[in-house]
């Protein structure tokens, strides 16, 4: 769980360091802009930006009942962030599995991708799709 927060914390620390340097250099406006920008990046790359993850088993069970896609992701993945942003509010209609928190989910991703943990991997109707176009995923949402 800790490694999910490494990148967001690096963004926060970098933002604070740059803001302090800007402030000490007599540029308070630049300090505020830098800090806000790095805090936004930290938020987007944090696990809080994604819908609450469920286990792979629970996601499969729910998907069988409601037909919604299962999205396997991991924190810090820029392609996962891109998918999440492009899905917008529709992202909550998919079942999200954090492969760093769920070993069974990681194993399922490796099985679908020839041993690689390539994310996002989206499973629709039992078929895995690696890094699919967000428009296609949006069309699969009920």
TrEMBL record:
Pfam families: Glutaredoxin. Keywords: Membrane, Transmembrane, Transmembrane helix. Gene3D superfamilies: Glutaredoxin. The chain crosses the membrane at residues 31-50. Residues 70-127 form the Glutaredoxin domain. InterPro entries: Glutaredoxin, Thioredoxin-like_sf. This is Glutaredoxin domain-containing protein. It comes from Streptomyces sedi. The lineage of its organism: Bacteria, Bacillati, Actinomycetota, Actinomycetes, Kitasatosporales.
